[in-house]
DNA sequence: TGCTGTCGATACCGCACAGGTATCACAGGC
DNA sequence: GCCTGTGATACCTGTGCGGTATCGACAGCA
């Protein structure tokens, strides 16, 4: 009389996002009539109206908005439960680590080597993902631990071990005048009229206001920088932006970023605890070691490498 | 191919707790055969063994233990989603406050009066519960806010506003020699041979070791103290233990307890925020006002009220 | 060793409900 | 007016849930 099944909540969630029964049904892989019926049944079972079906479209009611907000975490928890149980039952007891492709390359490599070498550490599977995806992967149980960055990443509900702190560099098109600088300040890289900063989606999927292009994949932004349409700030150790058309210039006063190893606060796995300790140890030794992270900062390419004078690229290169 | 429905997870959870298909089925209100089938179907769908059906009983596998640990939060999130959506759709937009019966009586009363008086505050529904139940009520959406106590209550995943800090009193049988003291120390109330401290269930439902009786309701413990079988420590403002057979004695060096108003960290309701501000304001004014919480501390009843000399009660008065 | 009780698995049946197709009802636009 | 787009309704079919009856395996016991 009063419970919602996972399937039903998924249906609701799809309609709430699309605000269109036909498209939602298509996304769900079912026909539209069963979806309409399902939603009506949900509404009658809960005893509340979830959607306002006006002739000119579908809108969420207040109750619908509340349910939409609650649906995400609830569905995440359900999928996480089965994913984790599955993985616990698998014979191979490896640990899945999610990380932004290209980030913290050196540390990741040492961590992988360490896990392969030490028999008491679980084998590590690396799940490379795009910016901001780690949190969702942890929440749905697709990953056990993740390399994330304070303060930019969403660390809500996670425990984290701080690994290392590093400064940021600006990645600018090699042909742009800014690329000639040995170092830059924040003031110098913001509000450059012909080189706006790229805008990443926020945690809720919306984009901040600004002149720069909306991007959500790393190759996307790398391409744009190479085309000369924008610049961006990244941690110095990141390896994703090393195209010949890119130049990395330290930004001396940009807020430093701390790389952390994060895991769900509910996790009780000793494996996770062991990896966290190991990662912290490696980070500490790496930082002062001969191949220190600080030395990994890409040297700004010499201005002499520039092949052609700066010309602004197309304002918008959307596919 | 790979999702679990809420009903199925409930079935699993019941079997995991009972470790007995027959009893679990009874608890679920279904017959045993469908339950057996459901569990087998779950196992085959997930591709993992969840239970070890030995001839001498049912045991959880490693995967089963993981799923059991994940099941609680996931199911809580699902029920919370529908509860909150339902309440959001109800015409009467009241707020449900959960609190231990008897605790923070004065503050609660002023909060209720304030909500009734101020038209911009929502009407407050009070949900009285037993010790440690508030967290579950918040997690499943049965309550919007709760009065809880730092550091004894489980505040994990909640945001909280500190309201007031108070000292603890020992509630002892009026006939016991300890009742004659004007004040006591922790050392004096622990390890009293004939008056062990009552043991409350921990967050996971198990009981700490010790000589005292296991209790989980307030009337339970009140009765035991009146019978002279144990004592306990409570915050001074609590009103649940005022029987004629009880004497409250301040324990000068017991760690002070802070009453907080807690709510799910995910809550975005402006109502909740408003209540939190109001409660904090009331608590601050009450603390220094004429009817201050500090003055609410029950005066220790005078030793002269004792009617009969101390005789130890029965060691264990279990029903 | 056979009897019995316990407990989970299996067999079989009826019904509820999910999902599909076809169609309707209604608003807007040309 | 007709056409298009959108959600609701009608009707059909198959899956699968839950129920009863029964089996099979093992423990305890005389």
From TrEMBL, chains A, B:
One Pfam family per UniProt: HTH_1
PROSITE patterns per the UniProt record, alphabetical: HTH_LYSR
SUPFAM superfamilies registered for this protein in UniProt: Periplasmic binding protein-like II, Winged helix' DNA-binding domain
Keywords: DNA-binding, Transcription, Transcription regulation
Disordered as annotated region, ranges: 284-319
GO cellular component, one term: protein-DNA complex
Domain HTH lysR-type span(s) in chain numbering: 4-61
Gene Ontology MF annotations: DNA binding; DNA-binding transcription factor activity
InterPro entries tied to this protein: LysR_HTH_N, LysR_subst-bd, WH-like_DNA-bd_sf, WH_DNA-bd_sf
Position of the signal peptide: none
Family: Belongs to the LysR transcriptional regulatory family.
Name of the molecule in the record: LysR family transcriptional regulator
Originating species: Brachybacterium endophyticum
């Amino acid at each position: 009389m009063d419970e919602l099944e996972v399937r039903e909540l998924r249906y609701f969630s799809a309609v709430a996002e699309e605000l269109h029964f036909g498209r939602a049904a298509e996304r769900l892989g079912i026909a539209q009539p069963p979806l309409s019926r399902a939603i009506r049944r949900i509404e009658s079972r809960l005893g509340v109206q979830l959607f306002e079906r006006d002739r000119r479209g579908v809108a969420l009611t207040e109750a619908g908005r509340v349910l939409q907000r609650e649906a995400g975490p609830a569905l995440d928890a359900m999928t996480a439960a089965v994913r984790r149980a599955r993985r616990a039952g698998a014979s191979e007891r490896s640990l899945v680590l999610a990380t932004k492709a290209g980030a913290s390359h050196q540390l990741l490599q040492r961590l992988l080597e360490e896990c392969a070498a030490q028999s008491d550490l679980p084998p590590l599977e690396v799940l490379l993902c795009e910016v901001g995806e780690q949190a969702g992967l942890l929440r749905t149980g697709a990953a056990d631990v993740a390399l994330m960055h304070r303060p930019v990443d969403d660390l809500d509900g996670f425990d984290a071990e701080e690994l290392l702190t590093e400064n940021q560099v600006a990645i600018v098109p090699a042909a742009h005048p800014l690329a000639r600088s040995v170092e830059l300040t924040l003031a110098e890289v913001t509000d450059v009229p012909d080189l706006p900063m790229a805008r990443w989606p926020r945690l809720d999927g919306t984009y901040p206001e600004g002149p720069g292009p909306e991007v959500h994949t790393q190759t996307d932004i790398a391409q744009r920088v190479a085309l000369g349409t924008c610049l961006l700030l990244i941690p110095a150790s990141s390896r994703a932006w090393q195209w010949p058309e890119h130049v990395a210039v330290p930004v001396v006063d940009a807020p430093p970023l701390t790389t952390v190893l994060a895991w769900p606060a509910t996790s009780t796995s000793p494996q996770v605890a062991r990896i966290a300790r190991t990662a912290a140890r490696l980070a500490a030794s790496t930082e002062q070691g001969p191949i220190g992270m600080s030395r990994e900062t890409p040297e700004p390419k010499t201005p002499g490498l520039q092949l052609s004078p700066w010309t602004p690229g197309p304002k918008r290169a959307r596919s």
